[in-house]
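[audit] Reproducing an earlier prediction to check determinism. Same input, same settings, fresh worker. If the tokens differ from the archived copy the diff job will pick it up downstream; this log only records the rerun itself.
[audit] input (359 residues):
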Amino acid sequence: MDATGDRLGPEYIIKVYDPRLGMGGFLVIDNTKLGPGKGGIRMTPDVTEEEVFRLARAMTYKNALANIPFGGAKGGIIWKSGSDALKKKFVQSFAQKIKPFLVSRYVAGPDVNSGEKEMAWLVDAVGDKRSATGKPKKLGGLPHELGSTGFGVAETAKVAAKLKGIDMAGATIAIDGFGNVGSFAFKFLKNAGAKIVAVADRYGAIYDGGGLSEKDIKKVKSCGRSLKECANGKPISREKFFSLAVDILIPASVTDVINESNKESIRAKIIVEGANIPMRENIENELWRRGIMIVPDIIANAGGVISSYAEYMGYGPEKMFELVRQKINFTANSVLRKSIQKNINPRAVAMELALKKLV
């Protein structure tokens, strides 16, 4: 799918550039039938218009499935790295350029390399607290640093494991990515009795058949080093990581990490898509046909946007987590049970349910 348009959208594709800073970015507002477009701002060195559109479309379906009054949208800033001072300038320049669309047609939020700090910068730049969710608590926010997305990923993993006949107590899990989503999925799944045997970042991975310690991994990440330098766990390559025979594989990093180069080696029984669009739909379909249960991103990582809705409504953390639990469990059970009964790819089931609300 490209951004040329279909019956859902996109309604707007905005490209921005600040020659003074060299800041370039994109905002795609895909569909606003159910409410203002909602989706985070991704800050990576190679983010593209096509990627942002694909993410915005995923948000359209995700918000419809979660039954919340938001449409689908996504932002992207080309960010190659730099100081916090420079990053703030990039975020605030982007915010000023998309200001005419904020609140009425787009509500920003955190994504890869953006969190409560970046949302505070954006709100400060445009002078309107309603322009973003995932803000710091002092601005009336429910920051994603509370772990709502990772919590939702863990909840969907539990639903999938139960339907697959896997006992979560002792289930083996591999997580790609140890940012906000992966780290909280690790925490909540470990609390449920699961054994996280492998964790990967962009450079490599570590493996321990007896289960990894969250404390040791966090110690390495807080030093700004790669997981492959972790003292605990055996270092393995990313190629080896994706071929591990685990009960559950959670891609929780960036777009298209499961691709033509590694799809044949995957041996997980369940894939829970913690990241947005971790593979293209044709690859997802191939893996499903091989008997792998797949929980699509539009269900698995909806905890973040449900948390955004809770913030929008003025709820506190406790009420937010309960709302995430209820909505995630209802949707995951509805979609996966129908997928099993009808022998239909879960994404097709999910999209059919969402389209009934959108068209």
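[audit] rerun output stored. Observation attached for the diff report: The first helix runs from residue 49 to 65.
[audit] end
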